[in-house]
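REQUEST FORM: STRUCTURE PREDICTION
Request ID: SP-0412
Submitted by: Lab K.M.
Chain count: 1
Length (residues): 587
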Amino acid sequence: MKVKPSKLRDALKHSRQVVRAYMDNVHEAIEESGGSWYTKRLSSDDEKRPLPLLPQAMNVYTRSIVAQAPTALITTKRPELKAAAADIQLAVQASLKNSNMTDILRSACRSALVGFAMAKTALEQKASVNPDTGEPEVGPGDPFTRLISMDDAAWDMTAKSWDEVEWIGHRFRASLDEIKANPAYKNTDKLTTGDGSREERASDLTTGGGRKEDAELYERVELWEIYLVRENKLVTIPGDTYGGADVVLREQDWGGPQPPAAPFGPFRILGFNFPTAQPLPNGPMTWFMGLHQIANKVFLKLARQAERQKTNPTIVNGGPSDIDRQKNLNDGDWGYLAPGQEVKETRSGGPDPVNAGFSVRATSEFIHYTNMDGLSGAGPQAPTATQEKLLEASSSQLINDMQSQMIDFARDVCHDHAYYVFNHPTRVLELLKRLDGFDIEIPKTFDPLEDRGDWLDYQFDIEPFSMRGQTPAALLQTLNNLLTTLIPLAPMLAQEGEAISGRGILEAFQKYTNSPDLASIIRPAEPPPQGEAPAGGMPGGGGGPSMASMGKPNGNYTRRSESTPQGADNALAEKMMSMPREGMAAG
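STATUS: Completed
RESULT:
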């Protein structure tokens, strides 16, 4: 190792200091996304968030960006290796499933929405005892992928771009007994338990922070694993609980995926927005936190005004003591009635209409800038179907860049799994292979000792659309488009012994429209007598509309003006903000 442990520790310390302000903002975004009834700081009445705008936006974005795990595609230009490529693809899919890749990618997406995400893909280490020597030894296991907490991630913060990053790594906690018993680690005699430097972490929001070594069931030690880019090495050093000594606990050449395909060893970084000449990405959700907080603070102000609103059948025509009695009345109580005065109803307090209009406008602006309704399909965004399609395409463009970056991230992680499956298979896998064109699966054995050629003979990719989900409305639209193409082909299909199933179409409509009554509305019917016209048309197409003509425009167009939800909100906000303030309580 050319780099001195002391220099590496100084680099780590500098990195942690530089990102402290950045991480404070990330922690605030995480706290806001949890809601008022999840974290400690937002538990007071003045800091509650009754409008869950940011949590909803994060859920909508996550569902739009990562709907499901990716499908790995492995191909080869050599015909004799096509069968092997198909087997490797099955093994990689099994490896991704064992790593819970769907949950990892969704968690990575949520992390990158407020900051960044770091994933580590490597081989498990399985400790065993050599039967010949009786000595402990560590062998490779199956590939795994784990998401690293943003608080535990670190990299070279002296770099102005990722091309200049010289080291990257993460902090982790491990069993002290296992580390000392592992022959791969050296200089472990002075290792002690502890939490290291107690800087604020995101996990403190629910765990309460503070040192936890007294509450842990087993003794644990804090370590750092760092990948040195120039030397292509992994080194492990102790955290701040080693008594100040600068030693290396473990040093090894990196044997996983190599540069340039894997420029940072086992680590992959996901960030949705990198400002110019900055190594730290900016989470998109932080752009919307201001609107989220403003909308909630104004809404809370309206709630307090509403709680102070009182209606009393009384009249006060006296001195200060009478006014004090009036102030202490509850809503609906009788107040002081001066002699000779008739009973009147008095009102005090109540939500300010200008503030109410501003609250509506702030919420509407948040939905507009995040495009939540367009991405979630919560409601119509345009008065016509054509305009709705245009807005839907625009919504897709707004999030398309983040989807592309997530696909690149998933492709890199899947590539790493494929590398290990191909180069370091450790056991026989029993897989199921689906026959093309048939709904049949046959068992297939993946033998780690089988010759599959060279790694460079294969091309690796993922199917981008496999990660993107479709709403029931989108699936219904796709079905309608398919029927438009298939119905004219019905005679040709009939000649080949195929037919379009009306019952199948109805079942699909029932599923995608969530209409359980559809099955009871349409029932099996007796066929009409020969020569008579079926309902809705004559034999041969006379007497009614044909299948080909259904759904076509009739040449008559009706122009109408309709309001979108955002337009209605803005109109309501303007109306409320123009109302007089007389009789309303100040905030």
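NOTES: The two ends are 65 Å apart (CA to CA).
Reviewed by: T.R.
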